[in-house]
Write a structure and sequence with these properties.
heterodimer, A: about 140 residues, 4-stranded parallel sheet, 4 strands, globular, B: alpha/beta
């Protein structure tokens, strides 16, 4: 029986603005709900702070990067230290395309902010499905 | 006394509640308790080697806040050439408060919020000790 690899989902840390919070919360929604059991994650700073094992992550798992802003730290750091990303999600770009503003608070997401995060999570899940289909060939 | 605000860098932990607690406490300090006297920035920028973030780290009085023993915040600040004036670990706070058992990662539960509040108060006092400046 062929074992399907799990998909890596790596979020930026995004402490500087609420877009980072949306990025992390949406990533957690994918891990806990939308693609539960099919996905794994890693804390981005471990690429520098961990032992060299963490740098095998993107080689071991086809990885989707999730970035809060246009600086694309997650995508760039993964590609710098670990390997090519299989897909990427830019939350700032998504919200712009939907005509939505980021949450007012980076600490507390209200009910509308949480719904926005879930919408982003669905976009991440869509990318994961596309990666899985590509793997299935 | 530092002219710049104290720079608080929490870990980016996403797998367990400890990282969420470190960030929540940091946001309480920079956005509420010591607004204007302390600020934060993305740890990811340091990982990426961002020039502006690296300069800020080197020119600031830094507080590192780590969720787990892997100490990503502390190590990444040091790698960037920053000096750590104070260091907090969520695990230490958990040992001091064994009755509190945070379980939720995405949105902190009651115990997680209590720990975050306690940690934020400790960090805020340290910002005062370090003479947090105005932006």
């Amino acid at each position: 029986m062929k074992v399907k690899p799990k998909i890596g989902v790596v979020s930026c840390s995004g402490e500087c603005c609420s877009l980072g919070t949306v990025s992390r919360v949406a990533t957690r929604m994918v891990l806990e709900d939308l693609a539960f059991g099919e996905t794994v994650t890693i804390c981005l700073p471990l690429f520098l702070a961990g032992d060299s094992g963490e740098r095998m992550f993107a080689e071991k798992f086809p990885t989707v990067s999730v970035d809060g802003c246009h600086k694309l730290c997650a995508k760039k750091a993964i590609e710098k230290y670990s390997g090519e990303t299989a897909a990427s999600v830019d939350v700032e770009e998504l919200l712009d395309s939907w005509g939505e503003k980021p949450p007012a608070s980076r600490r507390k997401l209200n009910i509308n902010d949480q719904a926005q995060s879930y919408r982003v999570a669905r976009e991440i899940a869509r990318e994961i499905e596309a990666v899985k289909e590509a793997l299935d060939g | 006394m530092p002219e710049n605000p104290i720079l608080i860098i929490p870990c980016s932990g996403i797998g367990k509640p400890f990282g969420t607690i470190s960030r929540d406490a940091t946001f309480r300090v920079v956005d509420e308790l010591r607004k204007g006297k302390a600020e934060t920035n993305c740890l990811s920028l340091l990982v990426m080697g961002d020039e502006e973030a690296t300069r800020q780290i080197r020119e600031s009085t830094c507080i590192a806040v780590d969720g787990c023993p892997l100490a990503c915040a502390r190590k990444n600040i040091e790698i960037a050439g920053g000096e750590i004036a104070a260091y907090f670990r969520v695990m230490d706070l958990l040992r001091e408060n064994r009755g509190l058992k945070p379980r939720q990662v995405t949105f902190l539960d009651e115990d997680g919020l209590k720990l975050s509040e306690m940690l934020a108060e400790k960090i805020a006092l340290k910002v005062d000790d370090l003479g947090g400046g105005q932006p």
